[in-house]
């Protein structure tokens, strides 16, 4: 992707999200009704790894990437981790998160306003880095670089989790929000390029038939 094209790919996405209402429905593109199904699936997935014992992932600190108003932080991460950091490209969403998260928001360590292509997470800080419905906003090279930075940001036995839409074949661009949807083999290849292993992968069930399949991958 040429520099000019790359620049507009990112700036168009920023413009799109700036006009989205800071609500759960806004975060989910009008599919607010699937939020509970999504969270329950994620919780079951994550619980396979968390806990005491050899090789298990700790619960000190998580990073919510593309956090929006904190939908995932509120219902998935804050109940499971002692502290959570939120990163999003839209400052208005992070401002809204401060009220949306309520009392539990006191356990948020940092609100980071940044695109993931520019984010350098603190080394060795996170047990889990949760990346949901946002990898489509990164170019292939930026996604690989970001995943490498995430790996450095993990604590011992930490996990990077990607949960995202999966295309049937190839790469499907979305002009509306300036993103792409990749097929699973492409996601696997990019994860491999970043030097990460896939520990576990599953498809989210019970989503509406008309939306993309959603897959969750645990990486280390």
TrEMBL record:
Its EC number is 2.1.1.244. Pfam families: Methyltransf_PK. Keywords: Methyltransferase, Nucleus, S-adenosyl-L-methionine, Transferase. GO terms for biological process: methylation. One of its GO terms (cellular component) is nucleus. It catalyses: N-terminal L-prolyl-L-prolyl-L-lysyl-[protein] + 2 S-adenosyl-L-methionine = N-terminal N,N-dimethyl-L-prolyl-L-prolyl-L-lysyl-[protein] + 2 S-adenosyl-L-homocysteine + 2 H(+); N-terminal L-seryl-L-prolyl-L-lysyl-[protein] + 3 S-adenosyl-L-methionine = N-terminal N,N,N-trimethyl-L-seryl-L-prolyl-L-lysyl-[protein] + 3 S-adenosyl-L-homocysteine + 3 H(+); N-terminal L-alanyl-L-prolyl-L-lysyl-[protein] + 3 S-adenosyl-L-methionine = N-terminal N,N,N-trimethyl-L-alanyl-L-prolyl-L-lysyl-[protein] + 3 S-adenosyl-L-homocysteine + 3 H(+). It comes from the Eukaryota. GO terms for molecular function: N-terminal protein N-methyltransferase activity. It is found in: Nucleus. S-adenosyl-L-methionine binds at residues 66, 71, 88-90, 116-117, 132. PANTHER family: AD-003 - RELATED, N-TERMINAL XAA-PRO-LYS N-METHYLTRANSFERASE 1. Belongs to the methyltransferase superfamily. NTM1 family. This is protein N-terminal methyltransferase. It comes from Liparis tanakae. The gene is ntmt1.
């Amino acid at each position: 992707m040429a520099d000019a094209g790359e620049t507009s790919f990112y700036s168009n996405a920023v413009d799109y999200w700036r006009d989205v209402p800071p609500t759960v429905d806004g975060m989910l593109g009008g599919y607010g009704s699937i939020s509970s199904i999504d969270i329950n699936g994620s919780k079951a997935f994550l619980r396979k790894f968390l806990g005491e014992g050899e090789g298990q992932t700790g619960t000190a600190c998580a990073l919510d990437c593309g956090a929006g108003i904190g939908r995932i932080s509120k219902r998935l991460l804050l109940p499971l981790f002692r502290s959570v950091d939120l990163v999003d490209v839209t400052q208005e969403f992070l401002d809204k998160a401060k009220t949306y998260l309520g009392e539990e928001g006191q356990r948020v360590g940092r609100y980071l306003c940044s695109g993931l292509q520019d984010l350098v997470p603190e080394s060795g800080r996170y047990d889990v880095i949760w990346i949901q419905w946002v990898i489509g906003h990164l170019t292939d090279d930026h996604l690989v670089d970001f995943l490498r930075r995430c790996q450095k940001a993990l604590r011992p036995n930490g996990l990077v989790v990607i949960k995202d839409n999966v295309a049937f074949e190839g790469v499907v661009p979305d002009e509306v929000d300036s993103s792409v949807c990749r097929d699973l083999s492409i996601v696997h290849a990019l994860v491999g390029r970043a030097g990460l292993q896939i520990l576990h992968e599953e498809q989210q069930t019970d989503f509406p038939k008309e939306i993309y399949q959603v897959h969750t991958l645990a990486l280390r």
